[in-house]
């Protein structure tokens, strides 16, 4: 019997989108509140699924289907309007790599800031400092302000810090395939290694090759609903069929 | 998110605070010296102008001290209030207790107080004694918590309603003038503003610190009202904050 790591039950999330339209400045000045109209928009509608311990669960679908909102709900950044989400174990979200990075601070300072934001402790980061720099291959830049690094190097650094975090569940939103070819290979290895160690991975990606080769199950989000959960092969077939 | 350690919270608090502090002086040649130079220049001018009046008995020194105490209040309030807004890029990506963001921002007002205090030591060295030092820092800590408590009430709504920026600016401007720092309390008896000044919690804090400077007496009774108010606002503020902050990601 497999144990559940994440249970999502009938989750709905809606926002009210403001529409602002005025043609003349005088209109705006006369009644600024009159020109903000609101419309209800629900990026996630009645979505349910379970993620089991040790599996890699991929969520695919077109832009604007509600994938990222769903991950934000799981990561506690948003709260669902309806339904509930249960998580078991320690969860680390990577909705973006390098959260909190500041361009004026050095690589060293950014490692501590980002690591602490991800939930690590200072002593842990000190112990693993060399590993991070080794993995990111940034020895020459340790005390250089981050803004002097190329954007590729910055993502490499972010990735190296991120995957040091010890967790049971990893949430990944489009953070695969960063850096150059060599680094991509390295980062895929890290994910495969996590999988071998029995970690649970929930990943939102457009990299269908990755889904086909690495995911255990996949889910298709289409127009804000979860329309299919099955093996990656079948889900990708359905996804491409819907596009035609 | 589950299972973050308390240690991580404390370290994260210091990291936010320390980084904001460092970033203020990064890439400037005089660096942290600015933290002392600026108040030194300001206080030097004010001190020499106010020396002519001696309305509080303590004169210019008392007024400067009053201004420093008021600044701690207004800075802890505004820094804390704006903190969620300025840390949007982090708040929208990862969950951790948001109180850390507010407190790490408002505590910057205490470092400003520390540097201003150094300047007071330079300008009024002959007036500084142990009771003054203790009561000064007592007053500073009290108004820091009062400002932070108000920040907890406002910060979530500040993200949503940008009008608050202008409203709070105005309120703090008025608040400064209804605090008897640049005039003695007795002088405005009978004035329409008198009741406002009287029930302003900062009035008592200022009167307390002036008593220490002028008469060298600790009128601790004066602090009862502001302390009680601060504690109430802080506790209710923390509860209100934890309830409303869950939706903050939708307000940006």
Could you explain the architecture of this structure?
The complex is a heterodimer of chains A (244) and B (252). Chain A contains nine helices and nine strands. By secondary structure, chain A is of the alpha/beta class. Chain A has a single domain, classed as P-loop containing nucleotide triphosphate hydrolases (Rossmann fold). In chain A, strands 5-6-7-3-8-9 form a six-stranded mixed β-sheet, with helices on both faces. In chain A, strand 8 and strand 9 form a beta hairpin. In chain A, helix 3 crosses helix 6 (151-162) and helix 5 crosses helix 6 (151-162). The radius of gyration of chain A is 21 Å and the shape is globular. The model of chain A has no long low-confidence stretch (mean pLDDT 91). With 252 residues, chain B is mostly helical. Chain B has one domain. Chain B is 72% helix and 0% strand. Chain B has eleven helices and no strands. The longest helix of chain B has 31 residues, at 130-160. The two termini of chain B are 21 Å apart. The model of chain B has no long low-confidence stretch (mean pLDDT 92). The A-B interface holds A 15, 72, 75-79, 87, 89-93, 95-96, 99-100, 102, 104-105, 109, 112-113, 116-122 and B 1-5, 7-8, 11-12, 15, 19, 22-23, 26-27, 89-96, 246-247, 249-250.
